[in-house]
Design goal:
This protein has 194 residues and is mainly α. It has two domains: 1-58, Arc Repressor Mutant, subunit A, CATH 1.10.10; 73-187, Tetracycline Repressor, domain 2 (Orthogonal Bundle), CATH 1.10.357. Helices cover 71% and strands 0% of the residues. The protein has nine helices and no strands. It has helices spanning 6-33, 39-46, 50-56, 60-76, 79-85, 89-104, 117-144, 153-160, 170-187. α4 runs antiparallel to α6. The radius of gyration is 20 Å and the shape is elongated. The N and C termini lie far apart (70 Å).
Length: 194
């Protein structure tokens, strides 16, 4: 058995990591446009061969879950960035949840992949970071006076989950904006039981 040069091995690992990232990025882009896009199109967009795609993601469901995890991981780290960019905490809260819904909404067309045990594990993994991000947004809204103190991040996530159920079109976006207005009206009061 021949030993591999450590430098060659490191280059191969970096190339494999780049390929994996390119595949996930391509999948994210193409799944939003068409959840049933052929994986050959994903490979082509990523600039890799179909064999490379299957080495990283043996099944379509594996790729769907990797894209989902990547999207959610990326979003969870942006709460502070959105707060710094927006003029108000309320605007940041709305932008963050609209972005979250844009990541999640197209996934409804991805079939059973997001109902599998692995998908439920991915959702469970995201719960802690999501709660932490929402806690930052809530804290800023409370300080600003647009939300009453005492609301829990987990409750807010459940409440805002309507956003990924509205239609993925302009009518759905308009409906989402109307409901967000109603949500903020309700959040100005302390939670029930306090």
């Amino acid at each position: 058995m021949t030993e591999q040069n450590p430098t060659t091995y490191d280059k191969q690992r970096r190339a494999a990591a780049r390929n994996r990232e390119a595949i996930i990025e391509a999948a994210h882009q193409l799944f939003v446009e068409n959840p049933l896009v052929p994986l050959t199109d994903v490979a082509k967009t990523a600039g890799v061969g179909i064999g490379t795609l299957y080495r990283h993601f043996p099944t379509r469901d594996d790729l769907i879950l990797a894209a989902y995890r990547h999207d959610i991981d990326r979003l969870m780290s942006t709460a502070e960035e959105v707060l710094a960019r927006q003029d108000s905490a309320k605007a940041a809260f709305i932008e963050w949840f609209e972005t979250l819904s844009a990541y999640i909404r197209p996934k409804h067309g991805l079939g059973d992949a997001l109902h599998s045990a692995a998908a439920q594990e991915a959702v469970a993994e995201a719960w802690g970071p999501a709660s932490a991000a929402v806690a930052k947004l809530l804290e800023a809204c409370v300080a600003e006076g647009t939300v009453a103190p005492g609301h829990r991040p987990e409750d807010i996530i459940m409440l805002m989950s309507f956003l990924w159920r509205v239609p993925n079109n302009e009518e759905g976006a308009e409906q989402g904006r109307r409901i967000i207005g109603t949500v903020f009206t309700g959040l100005q009061s302390p939670p029930a039981g306090q």
